[in-house]
Prior knowledge:
- By secondary structure, the protein is mainly β.
- It is built from two helices and 32 strands.
- Helix 1 (5-18) runs antiparallel to helix 2.
Amino acid sequence: xxxxxxCLCIALLFCCVALPATVAGAESYQFAERWSFAEKxxxxxxxxxxxTGDAEGRVYVVDRDRAAIRFYSPSGDYLGRWGAxxxxxxxxxxxxxxxxxxxxxxxxxxxxxxxxxxFTEGCDVIATWSGLRYKKPVDVAVVRKGKAYVADAxxxxxxxxxxxxxxxxxVGSEGTGDGxxxxxxxxxxxxxxxxxxxxxxxxxxxKFGRDGxxxxxxxxxxxxxxxxxxxxxxxIDAMDNIFVADSENGRIVKFGPDGEVLATLGARxxxxxxxxxxxxxxxxxxxxxxxxxxxxxxxxxVFRQGPDVADTPAENTTPSSGENITHPIxxxxxxxxxxxxxxNTTPGxxxxxxxxxxxxxxxxxxxxxxxxTAVATPTPLxxxxxPTITAVNITPYGTPTPLRSLPAPLGGLLGALALAGLLxxxxxxx
Length: 430
């Protein structure tokens, strides 16, 4: 029996509308909220770049143009800052990125001064790493006591350094083949101690083993948004998934440990969850919440996994009086580094002061030390029931956007029309 064109069209329409659209292996993230500050506010970020967090849930953001590191609570409340423009201790020239080891020590890539500065949690300068081998350091990854990696954008290899900052070896070599590097821009370590290197010039991620051997390289060429383009930041979550700030494409790309594309976050634009410029940084907390600096809005955008995110987010419009609006971000707990022990940061092969007293400098009435206030208790997110039948629209960047649920009467009507068409065709055949 051959069905009429009308019957086939009705049946096809029923299948397309009634069944939800899915993508095998795809994950979804949704914009949750934005921390935004007016220029008069202390939390204002002129040009945010690198971002990370500590075991207490505090979020640290590099402000390149103001040569400072700013601190925020997990809910986006401004806590304080370190640094100011200059060349002395606790002063920066074009800082780019930062990282924290298992003991809470912070490593800042003071790129313009060709050095790495190391601080305690209390803002005491422990050490500086500098010297002839440090040309344009942009990131640090701490492995264990006596071993760390330094990414230098002017060298086609990653430096291996000891606890004093002396270079003891390298990883990778110049080239475009396996293990080849051209402009290493960011570093991250997984739970097994493997090193991931983001190469801005080659627009790809290369994975090296603990012994420095090449293991894998990948980009986003199989994702709907195309290949990575001039990526500038890298982060790894608790499940060893890799997040890349695909800067020129205006998004974050999430990869699995073997390089498969799992999700994309954000898009180019001016709305919520979009970026007019960058992004130039990314950090994932132990709960999987993703924090991305927003250059044009001078703040941070926050994403959470899943199609159902909390109520309509409100911007953190911190008034000059210092009263902040609390946002429902969960406090991050747990260790943020795979390091088994912190570096013993003793005087290195560059300029160094053994002073343990912090530079109590102020800039714009902003104290250079973090204000140790209690972190606000997170507000639980309301549960939202899932629709039974939902059509999903996959955007060009791969982020599922829920459309409308199919009303049950409409589904029944389409089914009845398909059956009626079949009966009409059978009568014609008789």
